[in-house]
Amino acid sequence: MAEGKIKHYSDLLENKEISCKELTEKFLTEIESANKDLNAYVKVTPDTALETAKKVDEKLARGEKLSPLEGIPMTLKDNISTKGIETTCCSKILEGYTPIYNATVWETLSKNNAVLLGKTNMDEFAMGSSSETSYFGGAANPHNINHVAGGSSGGVASAVGGNIAVYGLGSDTGGSIRQPASFCGIVGLKPTYGAVSRFGLIAYASSFDQIGPITTTVEDSAIVFDAISDYDKMDSTSQGRKGTPTVDSLKNDIKGLKIGIPREYLEGIRDDVKLSIEKACEVYKSLGAEIVYFNLPALKYALPVYYILACAEASSNLGRYDGIRYGYRTDSYKDVNEMICKTRSEGFGDEVKRRILLGTYVLSAGYYDAYYKKAQNLRGSIVNAFKNAFASCDVILAPTVPMTAFEKGNAISVPIETYLTDICTVPVNIAGLPGVSIPCGFNDKGMPIGMQLIGDTFCESKILNAAWQYENAAGAEVFKASQYGVKL
Amino acid sequence: MVTHEDVLAIARLSKLYIAEEELDDLTKAMDDIIKFADTINNASEEGVEFDNINNLSNAFREDEVVPSYDREEILKNANDIDEGHFLVRKRV
Prior knowledge:
The complex is a heterodimer.
Chain A: H1 5-14, H2 20-38, E1 41-44, H3 46-61, E2 73-77, H4 104-111, E3 115-120, E4 140-141, E5 144-148, H5 154-161, E6 167-171, H6 178-183, E7 187-190, E8 211-215, H7 218-228, E9 258-262, H8 271-286, E10 290-294, H9 302-317, H10 336-347, H11 350-363, H12 369-392, E11 395-399, H13 410-413, H14 415-420, H15 426-431, E12 435-442, E13 448-454, H16 460-474
Parallel strand pairs in A: 2-3, 2-6, 9-10, 9-11
Antiparallel strand pairs in A: 1-3, 4-5, 6-8, 7-8, 7-12, 11-13, 12-13
Chain B: H1 4-13, H2 20-37, H3 71-75, E1 81-82, E2 85-86
Helix pairs in contact in B: 1-2
């Protein structure tokens, strides 16, 4: 069984085996060396981290108890707003932008004395599957640095998989938490749409975006999710967590649990991934769960539906970058229109421009009905298909990605082929469901393989329970730490 | 088939300039993506009306006046300001 790291470090602090200052310094030292290989962090914040560590040590000296995340070194994806700390979305257009407010998730965690080590790398504006569209270059996979960490939350996954952060928060619009977690052999939870506040998350596609934790174990994922899933009046889509904390039901027996596998998810996936999924089914059967196969034909259109709708929303959301109020502005221009056009053309990278153009295209007169409206209606069909599926099974099991981490440089050469790799992750965002990716093995080249458990809306407890049971039963075979980072 | 003219027209709406040397590659990429997006028009089903996710409905509340962000703080992120305003000067 993979030991929960948050509890482990928290115990070390409580038992005074290490001070929070020493722990933080250990992480900062390891970041300095490992980040040369991993490029996980785009900004390290030692002053903020050590200042918080001091507060935690003072609290311990006074004999006060710590809350579960207090004093634990962590990181945030660079699209989560941090007051007074530059937040760039890894885009040139937000160079130098320093938020004047905190994202709600960071406000919550910082009040709990979470130790922020820095901001992590990502695909520019979260648009990509390899982190290579980042203005700062891609993040490497801690299991083999010639491979990508995945994306778009590749920096968080690289840092957590590389043990240079205990946990991190990423965002998932079409798989951006689960895919890099799968590539790096760790755990990534995309919560139900509305379960975690997105206030202060720099928007990509607002009806899909969701913040969630990236951790090394399922227990850690539950602890972080419980801490950040609360109703927030600053996010009009916020509903918060429904029901008791997910840690309470993590270890429940899953005898009789009905695990559904839609056959469509198994089409076109690599053999090594398929084999790991089959093995996972055997583990579940040994735990008393029942595996049922069924068809979910609506999934056929999930990818084009996702790209049409997400890009449409992006083209609107990214209209705000005009060089007037914040971020990059071009040097010379004749008038306001030229200033805006030049600023945007120089400030955005190629992938972001492509998605803005596609989004504008599908929303433009003459194409709106054929693309945007049709995609919205098919989104409705996909939502209903999942609803029906959950009438006959408790959770859905599927691969997270059809393959293991790509070699560097491969993802950005052919955009459309890279889009296709999101096939297993986008349906969850389309339907607003929770999904957790957990490690389920390694291929013969030593690259991690992940699988995801998908639940009905607000059923995080159920999927985390099923995930914990698998992790506990499968053990060391599916969990290997990378060579990097802090080992205590 | 997406043409150069389509891409330029969409770029104008998107407030983006496309350099001459980018146009061929971008048109090809857009054409690939649009062809891929077109597969939804092969769907036999019409789909169902979709207007929100997870049964969200408008959450109305009484308007309360609360302190807002500090103007000076907001302006710190701007490239050019003058007397408490954002400024766009002519710069050729």
